[in-house]
Amino acid sequence: MEPDPNFWSCRTVLVTGISGFVGSHLSEKLLALGADVHGIIRRRSSMQNIAAVKDELNLHPGDVSDAHSTVSILKEVQPSVVFHLAAQSFVPLSWQAPLETISSNITGTLNVLEAIRKIDTVDRIHFAGSSEEYGAVRPNESPVKETNELRPLSPYGVSKVACDMMCFQYAHSYKIPVIRTRAFNHTGPRRGQEFVTSNFANQIANILKGKQPPVIKVGNLEAVRDFTDVRDMIRAYMLAVEKCDVNEIYNIGSGKGWKIREMLDLLIRLSGAKIKTEQDPERMRPSDVEHLICDSTKFRKKTGWAPNIPFDRTMGDLLDYWKARV
Q1: Does residue 194 lie in a domain region?
Q2: Of 229, 242, 177, nearest to 9 (Cα)?
Q3: C-alpha to C-alpha distances, 196 to 114, 122, 315, 319, nearest whole angstrom
Q4: Spatial CA neighbour of 239 closest among 74, 26, 89, 97
Q5: Would you say 41 and 59 are in contact if contact means Cβ atoms under 8 Å apart?
Q6: Which residue range is the domain that position 150 belongs to?
Q7: What does the pLDDT look like over 255-268, one tens digit per residue?
Q8: How far apart are CA 150 and CA 256, in angstroms?
Q9: How many angstroms separate the CA atoms of 197 and 267, rounded?
Q10: What is the predicted pLDDT for the residue at 285?
Q11: Phi, psi (rounded to 5 degrees) for 127
């Protein structure tokens, strides 16, 4: 199922975190379907991900952590749809900077919700939650349904639970039309180098260019993750806005688990190189979610969505992305 061009054509859409990994892919898809796309962008943000479409976007300097600028931008733009993607989303960093992560994510979400409450144009806001909200998933609870207990294992996971509950409260108290999704791992071209799939692809690209010995530094390779291509994920986000019910929660993921070791083996096979691995204690987390596989039955029934891009193509495209940049 593809997003409906008739729904998006000429619609005014605001994207927070527009210059990020997901935001950049989403903005391109929205533009292709004729939407009037606006974005909030911090002055220190890199423009690399949106360089190809920058001239087609309406970019507004600001920061969702600042209530005044958030309200001012929404009053100026008068969007009918808001995608709230802006967040500190790197889990390991949340242990190094727990206060910054929790403060940034919760304050940013609160400011967006308050700004929407003060204008009368938004008929849909999408909140991008995370599978990290589930945290300590027990063996008998996989694949994970929306009804699963939330047991976050990182400050990032805690922050997303708080934002999720805040969205529920604003939808219930103020009739804010929030649609909440919990995306499982997603990757692809432009994924930040700090994230595991990109980190491995970047190391392999450096090895292929002779800039690094043929040894990859790794952390926990036994964790199991459910990976979806970012280009399938942004289709899901758009379909959620089109078809999903306000104040409901929807898991989004492929339903297939990959050990981090299997993902790395696939990247190495695609590279054609002989590469060894070496565990780096600095890459081990204080606590790790060992097993996260998505049950997206509820979302698929509601929208007709299914992932289209096979994982080997995702990894191949990601490796090509880094080979072109190292």
Answers
A1: no
A2: 242
A3: 34, 36, 12, 13
A4: 26
A5: yes
A6: 8-188+227-254
A7: 999 999 999 999 99
A8: 21
A9: 9
A10: 63
A11: -105, 120
Long-range own/partner contacts, residues 197-201 (CB < 8 A, 24 or more apart): 197/227, 197/263, 197/267, 197/315, 197/318, 198/318, 198/322, 200/263, 200/264, 200/267, 201/267, 201/315, 201/318, 201/319, 201/321, 201/322
User: Does residue 291 belong to any structural domain of this protein?
Assistant: no
Give me the phi and psi of 217, to 5 degrees please. Answer: -80, 130
Asked if 173 contacts 180 with a C-beta cutoff of 8 angstroms, the reply is no
* Cβ(132)–Cβ(289) below 8 Å: yes
CATH number of 146's domain: 3.40.50.720
Helices (H), 127-259: 155-174, 196-208, 230-243
Nearest C-alpha neighbor of 204 from the set 90, 322, 30, 33: 322
- pLDDT classification of 175: cutoffs 50, 70, 90: very high
Q: Which pair of tokens denotes residue 161?
A: 């639970």
> Total structural domains in the chain?
1
Q: Which two tokens stand for residue 281?
A: 């204690």
Nearest residue to 161 via CA among 153, 169, 172, 150: 150
pLDDT of amino acid 92: 83
The reply to whether 260 falls in a domain is: no
**Residues near 161 by beta carbon (within 8 Å), at least 6 away in sequence:** 133, 150, 152
Q: Which residues of 290-320 are buried (b: 16+ CB within 10 A; e: fewer)?
A: ebbbbbbebbbebbebebebebeebbbbbbe
For all residues of the chain together, what is the average pLDDT? 95
At residue 242, the 3 state secondary structure works out as: helix
Q: What pTM was estimated for this model as a whole? A: 0.95
Q: What are the φ and ψ backbone dihedral angles of 291, each rounded to 5 degrees?
A: -145, 110
Q: Specify if 67 maps to a domain.
A: yes
pLDDT at residue 284, as a whole number = 66
Query: CA 228, CA 237: separation in Å to the nearest integer?
Result: 13
Is the per-residue pLDDT at 295 higher than 70?
yes
